[in-house]
């Protein structure tokens, strides 16, 4: 977010995010793009690493995250069906990685009003049938409409999500 791709700029940006999180007593989850940056994130003091939709199937990054002590939020790619998504998460967990959080952030659909369609049924399936992992809901991506984020988040909680992601830019 600082307009540069070098490691020092990344360190400065992460320091700002961690400082803001501490100031508001909120945990920080920061999206990672490159496997080589994992140590930078660990040293910066972020609370959690996030895998965004574009990297939901990045095998090199998922392999590297197997060894970080930080929890990992793995956001479901908007084109992944439930089974394919769980298989990608399972690949990351191979070798003993246990602190993984599933995240529903919406799937592609014919709906033109919202950015994505928040898959409430899959949140319930993750929570009650398919997984023992914690489930997060990200209604900001799931709807893309400011006025719908709150009600969609509540629906996600009612479906079984125990974690709410609120994007801040």
Description:
Helix 3 (59-65) crosses helix 4 (82-93). By secondary structure, this protein is an alpha/beta fold. It has a six-stranded parallel β-sheet with strand order 1-2-3-4-5-6. It is built from seven helices and six strands; from the N terminus they run H-E-H-E-H-E-H-E-H-E-H-H-E. Helix 4 links the parallel strand 3 and strand 4 (100-104). The model has no long low-confidence stretch (mean pLDDT 90).
Counted beta strands: 6
- Strand percentage lies at 5-15%
Portion in helices: 40-55%
Outline, from the CA principal axes?
globular
- Return the average pLDDT rounded to an integer: 90
Structural class: alpha/beta
| Uncertain stretches of 5 or more adjacent residues | none
Largest β sheet strand count, sense and barrel closure: 6 strands, parallel
The number of helical elements comes to 7
The sequence of SSEs as H and E is: HEHEHEHEHEHHE
What is the terminal separation in angstroms? 9 Å
Q: Give the radius of gyration.
A: 16 Å
């Amino acid at each position: 977010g600082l307009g540069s791709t070098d490691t020092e700029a990344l360190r400065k940006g992460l320091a700002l995010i961690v400082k803001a999180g501490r100031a508001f007593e909120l945990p920080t989850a920061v999206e990672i793009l490159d496997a080589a940056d994992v140590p930078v994130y660990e040293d910066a003091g972020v609370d959690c690493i996030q895998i965004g939709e574009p990297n939901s199937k990045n095998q090199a990054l998922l392999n590297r995250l197997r060894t970080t002590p930080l929890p990992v939020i793995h956001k479901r790619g908007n084109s992944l069906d439930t089974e394919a998504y769980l298989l990608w998460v399972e690949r990351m967990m191979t070798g003993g990685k246990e602190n993984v959080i599933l995240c529903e952030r919406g799937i592609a659909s014919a709906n033109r009003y919202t950015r994505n369609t928040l898959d409430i049924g899959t949140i319930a399936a993750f929570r009650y049938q398919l997984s023992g992992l914690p489930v997060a809901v990200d209604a900001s991506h799931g709807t893309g409409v400011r006025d719908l984020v709150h009600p969609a988040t509540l629906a996600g909680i009612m479906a079984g999500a125990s974690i709410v992601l609120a994007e801040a830019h």
